[in-house]
Structures are given as structure tokens and as C-alpha cells.
Design a protein that fits this description.
By secondary structure, the protein is of the alpha+beta class. It has 6 helices and 23 strands. It folds into 3 domains: 141 residues, no CATH class; 87 residues, no CATH class; 173 residues, no CATH class.
Length: 466
């Protein structure tokens, strides 16, 4: 190597192994981590993960960190005995980063829910997918399209939709809201696959309630509770049993026949015909019922309103278009599109991974703090093929075929009784590599302190002899 080239090469190594680069990397990691923490507090962990922790900026800084660590070791070549701890610690950090990369690419982190006494074989993960099933002549649905999606990073638009080709037709996804609140509304539709919908208001000086009532196609009646009364819409075969009841029967055109039943007398007290915009006195608690809107042939539509930040009610939603019809569908929901000879079921949800075997929740136990209903501990007894019954508690996970199952939480009913056990499931192929990296870092640190101690002793002895 010529002197000039050798000089340039040494300068290149000095730059990549410099303390300035190390300081820049550390400060960059601190800033990115701080931004991620702020985003996680303002939005949620998924938002922070996608925008910060797995962003190109974070990967670039971690790549610079690896380069800096490698060239710091190269700069000290040939290594001497006292470099042992220094080299091991640096190699350990690089190995840990490699393990983290493997975990990100090939690891699984999800959950499983088990209603009491039931089985499950699917892990639900945060990544998403869309599926389309077709049913011909009311037969079993057959999957005709499946696609893993990341609409957060690559959202569909009218100009750039996600297209599923179904024979000669296309089904398109044309919009995406990461945070949205669903709102139900009813619109006039064709007579086929539609039903009557009415919006009623029950009002007196103490009560003012408004509610939609929709009778789905094929059902004989539909009932809702509206304060002191039950509101029923039916096809003509409704039989009164008890309570305050208001029944509606659709007639020709835009009219409804109504009947009012009184709980106190257990009898019919009023009947008549009503149209949208009209009202009548119910006879109980001086309450008036107003028919705000009536759609003889209605179809249920779910629309979503975009939000900039999450709330307990928000979820992701997409807009799907097929054969001129547009429908919104929220995450982990299904919508239907009707064609002349078939029905398409479109699902948008979190991806599910098949374990390959069933796990059954045999028992679930909750320990509570004395004198309270607060859960102190909870544990699941599950039945697993080849393992039999296994106890999974908050401090005792179950390991099987590369997966680790942790007791994460549970759901309960209004009385506080547990109804569902939720397990967190993790598969981390990078874990052994990260353990090796951690071991090398600790070992290198110990050796570094050992050589520092030996060097200090030598300096002390030299000073004593002088």
C-alpha cells in the first residue's frame, strides 16, 4: 500500500472510530428515544413503534453504532492482553444488536384469549391482513383473496388503491383511518336484503332518549329497551306478555301501525297509525313518543369519523368499494357485498398465526386482596397436547415448541366474575444471541475492571519503591 493511500486509510479509520462519532450516536439515540417516549404518551405504543423505534432514523443510528464499535476495535489492532475486556464488551454490544434484529424480523409477539372451558389455537399479533371469502348458493365460504397489509406505512388512496381482482370485477380499498370512531346510520336501499328502520324519541320532563330500531332481513321482530318501555318492530305476529311495550308494524308506504301495552293493566291501551314527524302520548309517566324517521327498506351503514389521537373508542378503519357500493369496515370486523349469484365476505383484522395444536382453558383462578374485589393474582390451568395440564401464573410461564406463554390479564362480567383468560405469547429466535451478547458485555466489563485493578497495583508498587 502506497504511503498516501495508507495515510488516507488510517485517517478513515480514525474518523469512524472517533469519540466525536460515538458522542453523536449516543446523543442521537437519546433524542430518538425521547421522541418515541413522547409519541407513545400522546398516541400509543404501536404508533411510536412504527414512527420512531423501527424507523429508518433509528436503524441508521444503530448501524452507525455498530460501525463505530467495529472501527474502534480495528483502530487498536493488534490487540494486546489488556484489550481483552474492551474487545469482548464491544463484540457483546454488536451481538446484542444482531439478536434484536433477528427478533424484529422473525419473532412473534401476540396474545391468545380463552373463554372459560373453551379452546384456542390461534395467536393474534399486531400486524394486519385482509381476507375475502365467497359464498355461492349459501354454501360454505371459500377464501378467494388474502393479503398481509401495513396501511399505517402504505395507506391506500383513491389514486393508489389496494385492488383485489375477483373474476371480472375488482374490489378496492380506497381510504384508511388509523384512529377513527364508528358511527351507525341507516340509508334507503333495495327491497332485497333490507329491512325497516325507525328512529324514535321518548320524552317527558324527566327522560329524553333517542334510538334507532332496525329489523334485520329474515327476522320476525326486533326489540330494544328505551327507558321505561320496550320498543318492538315486527311483521304482524307479535304477542304481548308483560311490561310497558310499544309495538310497530310496517304498513304499505310510509306508515306504521302502533300499539301501546300498559304493564299496570297488562293490556292494550292505545293503537293507531303514525308517520315520520308525528307523535303520540304513551300513557305512562306522561311520556310522548315521536317517530323522527322511518325508512321502509333500510340498510345499515357504518361510517367512521377520523380522529388525530386515540381514545378508548377509536380503532383503525378502511373504505372498501365493490360494484359501485362503498362500505367502511373497522379493524377485526366483517362486511358483506351481494352479487347476483354470490356473497362476498370482506374481513379486516389482526393477523392470526396457527399454533398447530389446540390449547384448552380447563380452569381459571383469581386471588383477591382480603376484603376487596381487587385481583391480587390470577392463573390459568390449560390442557396442552403432549404436556397434559399445565399451570400458567403471573410468575410461572409455560414453554412449548419455541413459544413462551405468560398470564397477561383476564376479562370479567359486571358481577366481577372472570369470563376470559388472556395469555401473552412470545417466540424470540434472537433471545439466545442476545443472552450471548449480554454475557460477553458482563464478562468484558469484569475483565476491564480486573486489568484496571492490576494496573493500579503496579502503579502503587512503583510509587512505593521510589
Amino acid at each position: 500500500m502506497s504511503p498516501s493511500l495508507n495515510k488516507w486509510f488510517n485517517k478513515f479509520i480514525k474518523q469512524l472510530s472517533s469519540l466525536k462519532l460515538a458522542v453523536f450516536v449516543i446523543l442521537s439515540l437519546a433524542v430518538i428515544s425521547a421522541v418515541g417516549t413522547i409519541y407513545e404518551a400522546k398516541y400509543d405504543a404501536t404508533y411510536a413503534q412504527k414512527t420512531v423505534y423501527t424507523s429508518i432514523y433509528m436503524k441508521a443510528v444503530l448501524g452507525l453504532l455498530c460501525i463505530n464499535l467495529i472501527f474502534v476495535m480495528v483502530d487498536r489492532w493488534p490487540w494486546k492482553k489488556h484489550h481483552t475486556g474492551f474487545v469482548l464488551a464491544h463484540i457483546g454490544i454488536i451481538i446484542m444488536l444482531i439478536g434484536a434484529f433477528i427478533t424484529e424480523k422473525f419473532g412473534i409477539d401476540g396474545s391468545m384469549a380463552f373463554p372459560l372451558g373453551e379452546s384456542n389455537r390461534f395467536i393474534t399479533v399486531s400486524s394486519q391482513e385482509v381476507n375475502i371469502f365467497a359464498s355461492y348458493d349459501n354454501g360454505n365460504p371459500t377464501r378467494v383473496f388474502a393479503r398481509a397489509v401495513d396501511f399505517f406505512k402504505d395507506p391506500p388512496t383513491e389514486e393508489k388503491p389496494l385492488v383485489a381482482t375477483l373474476g371480472n370485477q375488482e374490489m378496492k380499498i380506497t381510504d384508511y383511518y388509523h384512529y377513527a370512531i364508528g358511527k351507525e346510520e341507516f340509508v334507503a336501499g333495495e327491497k332485497i336484503n333490507s329491512g325497516p328502520a325507525l328512529r324514535v324519541q321518548l320524552q317527558n320532563k324527566f327522560v329524553n332518549m333517542t334510538q334507532w330500531l332496525f329489523k334485520t332481513p329474515g327476522k320476525k321482530l326486533e326489540t330494544i329497551s328505551l327507558g321505561p318501555a320496550q320498543i318492538v318492530i315486527h311483521d304482524g305476529d307479535f304477542k304481548y306478555e308483560k311490561g310497558n311495550v310499544l309495538s310497530f308494524q310496517p304498513l304499505e308506504g310510509d306508515r306504521l301501525a302502533y300499539k301501546v301495552y300498559l304493564d299496570r293493566t297488562q293490556s292494550l291501551v292505545k293503537s293507531g297509525i303514525v308517520k315520520a314527524g308525528e307523535s303520540f302520548n304513551t300513557g305512562w309517566m306522561d311520556a310522548t313518543l315521536r317517530l323522527l324517521k322511518y325508512i321502509p327498506n333500510a340498510q345499515r351503514k357504518l361510517i367512521f369519523v377520523k380522529r388525530e389521537s386515540p381514545t378508548p373508542r377509536t380503532r383503525s378503519a378502511i373504505l372498501v368499494e365493490y360494484n359501485g357500493e362503498k362500505q367502511w369496515v373497522g379493524l377485526n370486523s366483517v362486511i358483506k357485498f351481494f352479487d347476483t349469484d354470490k356473497v362476498y365476505y370482506f374481513s379486516f383484522g389482526n393477523r392470526r398465526i396457527d399454533l398447530g395444536y389446540d390449547i384448552q382453558l380447563a380452569d381459571f383462578r383469581v386471588g383477591k386482596y382480603q376484603g376487596t374485589n381487587r385481583a391480587m393474582s390470577y392463573e390459568s390451568v390449560v390442557k396442552v397436547p403432549e404436556l397434559g395440564e399445565v399451570l400458567i401464573s403471573m410468575n410461572e410461564p409455560m414453554k412449548n415448541k419455541g413459544y413462551t406463554f405468560y398470564q397477561a390479564s383476564f376479562e370479567q362480567d359486571e358481577q366481577g366474575n372472570p369470563t376470559t383468560s388472556i395469555l401473552s405469547v412470545n417466540k424470540d429466535p434472537g433471545r439466545p444471541i442476545k443472552y450471548l451478547g449480554s454475557f460477553l458485555i458482563v464478562l468484558g466489563s469484569i475483565i476491564l475492571f480486573y486489568f484496571k485493578r492490576m494496573k493500579f497495583k503496579e502503579m502503587f508498587k512503583r510509587g512505593a519503591h521510589e
